[in-house]
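Hey, quick one: can you model this chain's 3D structure?
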Amino acid sequence: MARTADGARSVASEAMLRELGSQDVDCTAARVAVDTAGFAAPLGQPVVVRVTVTCVVSVADLALPGLPGQRALTSTFVSPLDAHRARR
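Sure thing. Here's the predicted structure for all 88 residues.
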């Protein structure tokens, strides 16, 4: 629902922290990358914003041979921008 690329980045970061926290996911490192290129598109053109979240989690508690001590989990989410709503 953000109207600016900076706003979209901010909202995505806040949502990532809120959702990971609500699910008790303990990331040793977390990163959110937001592709906001769609904000530069002319009105009327269908575009999307892509958000990629990476969370590094420890798997040391599993104690399975051959597993590394940490594992990076990544997921990408896509949300359409309203083609007729003003953007900045």
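One thing worth noting: The first strand starts at residue 29 and ends at 35.
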